[in-house]
Amino acid sequence: MTPRMFVFQLLGVLGLIVVLGLNIIIMDWWERKLIGHIHVRPGPMHTGFHGILQPFADMVKMLAKEDVVPTEADKLFFWAGPMIAVVPAFLAMVVLPLAPGFVLADIGHGLFFVFAMQTIMPFGFTLIGWAAHNKWSLVGGLRSAAQLISYEIPMLISALAVVMVAGSARLTDIVDAQATVWYVFKLPVAFALFLVTAVAEMNRTPFDMTEAESELVAGIHTEYAGMKFGLVMMAEYTAMLVGSWMIVLLFLGGWNLWPLPPSPLWVVLKVYLLQSFIVWLRGTYPRLRMDRIMELSWKYLIPAALANLLAVGVLVIVFKGF
Amino acid sequence: MIADHPRVGHVTTGGTTESIVLNMGPQHPSMHGVMHMQLELSGETVLAARPVIGYLHRGIEKLAEHRTYAQCMVLVDRLDYISQYSNEWAYCRAVEKLAAIEVAERAEWLRTLYAELVRITSHLLWWTSVGLDLGAFTPMIYAMLPRERIFDFFEATTGSRLMPNYLRFGGVKEDVEQAELDGIHDYLAVDYMKLLDDYDTLLSGNEIFISRQEGLARITTEQAVSWGVTGPMLRATGCPRDLRKDARYGVYDQLDWETQTDTRGDALARYTVRVKEMRESARIAMQCIERMPAGEVRTKVAKILKPPEGEVYVRHESTRGELGIYIVSDGTAKPYRFRVHSPAFMNVSALPHMLPGEHIANFFAIFGGADNVMAEIDR
Amino acid sequence: MFGEGLVKGLGVTGKRMIGRGVCDMYPYKRRVLPPKSRIFLSMRATPDGMPKCQSCLTCQQTCPDHVIRIERDPEDRKRALSFTVDSGRCTFCGMCEEACPYDALVFTQDFERATFEKGTLTYRLIDAGIATESCVTASAEEQPVHASAEGGRDAG
Q1: pTM to 2 decimals?
Q2: Is ipTM beyond 0.85?
């Protein structure tokens, strides 16, 4: 590695951190605003024009708060849990491309790298739940472990259909293969399965079992205050960003918006439209029950994903280059 | 606190795991009021439930013994602060029966109107919490819109949104202008019904919601009667018990309406009965406005009322079930004994029978079906 | 069909997401309460500062929560020296207004009286036999009571 490349990559990593921070700032405001309008109320209005400075006010509030650590808590993992949750989400972003060639590491198995990183996240959530020494947190953490592990399987299987059709696991290749027809039209079943499982992986309503505020007070972050709580929120928002980004790359054509010329702008636009849709879901649906969530995954989603994989495989062999 | 629970620390399931005790409330964010529920859990399954009440005890029954009959009206408002007019009416009926006071005719119609409007607001508040308990935040905000509109009507006609102090022995405090009545009639007939349809689409038709409520905590009429459960909870088991028809008070017998029942007896049935009642109450209220006669709204009653010696018990269909008011008079201006039979208390005491074996996530779905108000239980 | 309700639910929320909100932006825009609304107790007085109160003590006896305290003039039984209202105890039931035989008591719609100390909730309507500024004078009463209270208040 030449020194020039090293500097370039270092700058790229710093850029990713900026993207991460910007996403949280935007989504924090946008989610409040959107949920507010769904609730026929204006949302934040006092801080700046239509509350645009609200995320900074939140940040100041979090920083100014006392950093409470429960006496009985496991000090190390209480501190490390949010990190373990947020770092893999951040690492997954390394392979996510914004435009052809505009990616930090364009590795040949980028898709599987993202899944590998997402597999680490449940450890973080479970540790957060366990370390706080609180019954609510513990139940939330265990629920999150069970849920995330169950939903990774159908998620990966439905993504495999995309890999089979595109003939590559490199994310840039997958996007390039969708220059005219997006995979959402070619593989609607895989898209539906992936969307449902991705929402579950993000811990969003109707699958927000880790929080479940009507049952578990605040779930895994019951005992978290101040900036540690901010870290947990950061992990959740980053997971949402990575999940939406994945859907956009795999099914919604990435930077392609035929017949318009490809542009990184489309990726950003699609990602935020998708995140808005997920917020809209939160504003509409009640929460599923834990056992029903597990049932949904093991009884319906995994068989459906496998059947879909088989059907797509047959189609790929029968009609070459489907 | 845990030590006095007989089963903790001893019960093991399968000989290997220990049960844990989870204190639901009184500071749980989605607990309705300051209710405290001790749940014994095996994993996420409830083994036993024990309601702990008394956090909101204000001594209303004792306070009433030191106030004149008229002054007690203020206390009765605060018994169940979500169905104020029902409480006031029950109390007024008790005192009127005790002192043999005649009620002005228009006042009976006004009382019926207000009792049905408050039934709507009470059920709307329950509807907000049903969604909230299952994780849907939006229904809470939506149902507040018609509720606030009806409260605006209350405020414009009786002077207070929540604590009206409007009913008087022998009538009501003051007459209501026809323009106000027409306004609320128009609202109920068009906008309110439209909103209810929307809300039905949002929650009642939602598959996630139905899957969470269907078949949950099913009870039979016999069980409900033996636990003393009344109101919509009893009607959801298929028993057409409604004191508005059975006890015959107000002008209900002159109006065209049906008792709403559902035969399934599960949480979804309890939901359906209340949603149906929201529409039926609006129908009753609209009929009241259409057919209300003109005339006086108050009969002459002594300022310091001294009922003759004796006792009286009055049953009343409050929004939550059978509200009983028992008064003993010793002939002075203050009641000798004032006692309330609370429907919410009876409904909550059925919970320990309904909860064991259920998933902890179902706790609030069942608990919300009881529609309790702690202020009435603790008094 | 499974999923129909889910889509329709999205329609209900989506329709409202685009539509207008219903909130009153409170500190910027104040609500005008209906004239029957019971907020704070006040007394009618003539423009020259004489209260309508005849010191009959009916309100003091009627009040369920002992909010009103009247000090009678020992020489003139129809004159109150002081009329104290402890609004921290008041439940706004309106029984005093209803009981007053001289139509002296009136409820104003001024609802912005939050304070940091409980003691400041006690105020006098009559001090040394003269109506205080908490009273409503006849000239002010011709306009709606709620619009005459202090503070720049928007019309609607």
Answers
A1: 0.85
A2: no
